[in-house]
Automatic annotation (TrEMBL):
<dbReference type="GO" id="GO:0019752">
    <property type="term" value="P:carboxylic acid metabolic process"/>
</dbReference>
<keyword id="KW-0443">Lipid metabolism</keyword>
<keyword id="KW-0812">Transmembrane</keyword>
<dbReference type="InterPro" id="IPR050477">
    <property type="entry name" value="GrpII_AminoAcid_Decarb"/>
</dbReference>
<dbReference type="InterPro" id="IPR002129">
    <property type="entry name" value="PyrdxlP-dep_de-COase"/>
</dbReference>
<keyword id="KW-1133">Transmembrane helix</keyword>
<dbReference type="GO" id="GO:0030170">
    <property type="term" value="F:pyridoxal phosphate binding"/>
</dbReference>
<keyword id="KW-0256">Endoplasmic reticulum</keyword>
<comment type="similarity">
    <text>Belongs to the group II decarboxylase family. Sphingosine-1-phosphate lyase subfamily.</text>
</comment>
<dbReference type="GO" id="GO:0016020">
    <property type="term" value="C:membrane"/>
</dbReference>
<protein>
    <submittedName>
        <fullName>Glutamate or tyrosine decarboxylase</fullName>
    </submittedName>
</protein>
<dbReference type="GO" id="GO:0006665">
    <property type="term" value="P:sphingolipid metabolic process"/>
</dbReference>
<dbReference type="InterPro" id="IPR015424">
    <property type="entry name" value="PyrdxlP-dep_Trfase"/>
</dbReference>
<dbReference type="InterPro" id="IPR015421">
    <property type="entry name" value="PyrdxlP-dep_Trfase_major"/>
</dbReference>
<comment type="pathway">
    <text>Sphingolipid metabolism.</text>
</comment>
<dbReference type="GO" id="GO:0016830">
    <property type="term" value="F:carbon-carbon lyase activity"/>
</dbReference>
<keyword id="KW-0456">Lyase</keyword>
Length: 481
């Protein structure tokens, strides 16, 4: 697209934008089990109105727009209250879970640079189920990730395996509550004791659980202790834009010892010719829209509203899980207790199953196999999905039965010979050959996603990471527009 010479009519522009959404996932249908979190039309309108009210205000300078700072302080106080932070806890409002995790790792590293200068090559200790953003943080901040295996049946972190991998260079340990892939809550209390014994920082990733698990516990569901009240836990991340149903761009990083820790998170610079820069988080300029919308939805829902939503989604999740266990070809992974879970199959191709369910109007999320976890399908069940549970179960049963009747097992048992040879030889032709295989004769990538996913599932993670990066790089190229 060339830069426009002349302006356009606003109505025409909005019509153009609306048209561009036609190929997007229809999240308003309640048939998407990932990416979007919808608490209903009234809540959605409140988010839009409150976001717009503060869209232009800039969180860069709290002395210019004190309203943005006050809203953030309110939001953080509510979050700290919810996750047992205590009187000394402090934190920061961030743009999402990834930024929260990046800040946590960066803060631990910088603290250790000051207080543990003997550590020259810092290490981050994490279970193999930890979120990919921790590895991103390691790549960004020159930290060595040390990965421990998890229990292959429950997919929970193994305290003994974690303890064995603590070294004099370990600066922080990581756990999930819950992990995204399987919805497993790691044994936080046991891991906290390891952190105390070795004087380590201990981050609990509650990005998907921070606005869900507290309410599930209050409702009486068997959720183990996981928050900042657990001895040994020093910091915690939580997203508001997941099960808090806030507008996108709303997360938090919270430190139990806030005043001491948070100063290592900040960046300040006045050694240039411009204004003094003081950044609590990674971003500098940032709209106050997300924090205003977050404040609004927390006030709108209240504890009572979130309890209702969690009860609703817990019931829907239990119903879906029960149905999965009744389908002979499918089985659940781990021992999920909340609204995040995954299922696999030894008899039908899960990637093809996801594609066929998409043909029926459902969006479910396939996941590659890794470690003890086979290729599987992930579901994040939200309030918007709850009223569609029966229809989803009926379509899932019908689709699996249809595939089983055709003996539709995994599409690929091994890589095609040309791809296998290219991988073995580390051939520069690999990406080109794979692109041709992916696109096929008609260039219909969307129609071949089951085949593509099976192909990638058979590759070592570093290889598929490189290929996926190159592929997405091509998608964003001007030539692909």
């Amino acid at each position: 697209m060339k830069f426009p010479e002349h302006g356009r009519d606003t109505g025409n522009i909005l019509q153009d934008l609306a048209a561009r959404k036609q190929q997007d996932v229809d999240w308003q249908s309640g048939r998407a089990f990932a990416y979007v979190y919808d608490a209903g039309p009234e809540a959605m309108q409140l988010l839009k109105d409150s976001f717009t009210l503060f869209m232009t205000e800039n969180g860069l300078d709290p002395t210019t727009f004190p309203s943005a700072m006050e809203l953030e302080k309110d939001v953080m106080s509510m979050a700290i209250d919810l996750v047992g932070g205590g009187a000394e806890a402090e934190g920061s409002f961030t743009s999402g879970g990834t930024e929260s995790l990046l800040l946590s790792v960066k803060t631990a590293r910088d603290y250790c640079r000051t207080h543990k200068p003997h550590i020259k090559q810092p290490e981050l200790l994490l279970p193999e189920t930890a979120h990919a953003s921790f590895f991103k943080a390691c790549a960004y901040f020159d930290i060595k990730p040390v990965v421990a295996p998890v229990n292959p049946h429950t997919f929970r972190a193994d305290p003994a395996a974690m303890a064995e991998r603590v070294t004099e260079n370990t600066i922080m340990m990581v756990a999930s509550a819950p992990s995204y892939a399987h919805g497993a809550v790691d044994p936080i209390e046991e891991l906290g004791q390891i952190a105390l014994e070795h004087e380590l920082f201990f981050h609990v990733d509650c990005c998907v659980g921070g606005m869900y698990l507290p309410f599930a516990r209050q409702l009486g569901y068997r959720i183990p202790r996981f928050d900042l009240s657990v001895p040994g836990v020093t910091q915690l991340s939580m997203d508001f834009h997941k099960w808090g149903y806030a507008a996108k761009g709303a997360s938090a990083i919270i430190y139990k010892n806030g005043a001491e820790m948070r100063r290592h998170q900040y960046f300040a610079w006045s050694g240039w010719t411009g204004y003094s820069v003081i950044n609590p988080t990674i971003m500098s300029t940032k709209s106050a829209g997300p924090v205003a919308a977050c404040w609004a939805i927390l006030q709108y829902m209240g504890r009572e509203g979130y309890l209702d939503l969690v009860e609703c989604t817990q019931s829907a999740s239990a119903k879906i899980r029960a149905a999965i266990t009744e389908i002979p070809q499918l089985y659940l992974l781990g021992e999920p207790r909340t609204n995040l879970f995954s299922f696999a199959s030894d008899e039908v191709d899960v990637f093809k199953l996801a594609a066929k369910m998409k043909e029926r109007g459902w969006y479910i999320q396939p996941q590659f196999g890794f470690g003890p976890s086979p290729a599987n399908i992930h579901l994040s069940v939200g309030a918007g999905n709850a009223t569609h549970t029966d229809a989803f179960i009926a379509d899932l049963r019908a689709t699996v039965a249809e595939m089983a009747a055709k003996a539709a097992g995994p599409s690929l048992q091994a890589l095609p010979e040309d791809i296998h040879l290219a991988l073995k030889e580390n051939s520069p032709r690999l990406l080109e050959e794979l692109s041709q295989l992916i696109a096929g004769n008609d260039g219909d990538i969307a129609g071949r996603m089951d085949y593509i996913n099976n192909l990638l599932n058979l590759m070592p993670p570093p290889v598929r990471d490189g290929l996926l990066s190159e592929f997405v790089n091509g998608l964003y190229s001007k030539a692909s527009a």
